[in-house]
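PROTEIN FOLDING TASK:
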Amino acid sequence: TDGIDGATDAAGALVTAETIADSEDERAATVALADNDVYPFLEARDALLISGATGTNVNDLRVLVVPE
């Protein structure tokens, strides 16, 4: 990321099992995803990555899923 992607100040988010800790979080995440509005959900859980402008332009995305 260049730190200023899209219409928000977030460069991305770091989501772990603790981000969605219980069924209430799971319901809230489902609604946020369905509404295409996850920023408030992630902000409330301190999961957003806000770096500010980095001066780089990168287009790689890596997702790691670790089964339990």
Observations:
- The first helix runs from residue 23 to 34.
- Residues 12-49 form one domain.
- DSSP finds two helices and two strands in the chain.
